[in-house]
Design goal:
about 250 residues, alpha/beta, two-stranded antiparallel ribbon, about 15% strand, globular, disordered N terminus, binds farnesyl diphosphate
């Protein structure tokens, strides 16, 4: 940890350029990928897990310090029960089968989202993944599971309200920085770039607070087709953007 409390990270590169520190991905289009091939939706999700494996490996090799993936949203509970069962089964399988490999590759796993209302076995698996990989200092894979940004901000507000009610904090001392420190993973820097696949162009309740200055890159392929080349392409697009953070001095993408 640095003096500011942020995790210190290694710097990697793509084609000799420094990689963005934090890449977040909305993995969209599994259903459309499957429909286009006359396959059941679950096949799209299965192939989505394979794309995820490739992407995590590539992110680690490219020296990306944080990779956040939107794996199950607070709103996904409104899908048909059979699809919810399939997605939960894939998550269980991903952690059971891939955790050892992730650990071997020095990847740290973190989880954001609401855990209290999850099945105890899923809660245990998520905790086990975090505990086993806690000491790793390669890429941090942040799994947004049962995650919604508005819900996360409401959780932070509740934590602050509790501190005020207990007399440990004055309401007038609440600043954006303090609210940031009450989010689910306060030590992780904001994403430099958020990538969404499938051509849809919206954030869908993903990292709304943290994306204030993130570059948004929308790629027209469905998630199961995403791979290292697509990741490098999205990073190249990010690099072409000027990041001004509300000021006047232009900064090129890192
Ligand atoms: C969007 O496709 C994707 C999801 C709802 C979940 C993403 C899940 C995976 C990549 C597999 C599971 C991985 C883990 C770690 C649980 P969609 O179904 O919304 O596609 P559509 O918009 O084309 O219907």
């Amino acid at each position: 940890m640095s003096a500011t409390g942020e995790v210190q990270t290694k710097v990697g590169s793509v084609d000799g350029f420094e990689s963005p520190r934090h890449v977040a991905i909305i993995m969209d289009g599994n259903g459309r990928w499957a429909a286009a091939r006359g396959l059941p939706r679950v096949e799209g999700h299965r192939r989505g897990v394979e794309a995820l494996r490739k992407t995590v490996r590539a992110a680690n090799e490219l020296g990306i310090s944080f990779l956040t993936i939107f794996s199950f949203s607070s709103e996904n509970w409104s899908r048909p029960p059979s699809e919810i069962r399939d997605l939960l089964r894939l998550l269980r399988r991903f952690i059971r089968n891939d955790l050892v490999d992730l650990h071997k590759n020095n990847i740290r796993v973190r989880v954001i989202g609401e855990r209290d209302d999850l099945d105890p076995d899923i809660r245990r698996l998520l905790q086990e993944a975090e505990d086993l990989t806690r000491g790793n200092d390669g890429c941090t894979l942040v799994v947004a599971f049962n995650y919604g940004a508005r819900q996360e901000i409401a959780r932070a507000a509740r934590r602050l309200a509790t501190e005020v009610a207990e007399g440990r904090l004055k309401a007038s001392d609440i600043t954006p920085e303090l609210l940031s420190r009450h989010l689910d993973a306060p030590d992780i820097p904001d994403p430099d770039v958020i990538i969404r696949t499938s051509g849809e162009q919206r954030l869908s309740n993903f990292l709304l607070w943290q994306s204030a200055y993130s570059e948004l890159v929308f790629v027209p392929i469905n998630w199961p087709d995403f791979d290292r080349a697509a990741l490098e392409g999205a990073i190249a697009e990010y690099r072409r953007r000027e990041r001004r953070f509300g000021g006047l001095i232009a900064q090129t993408g890192s």
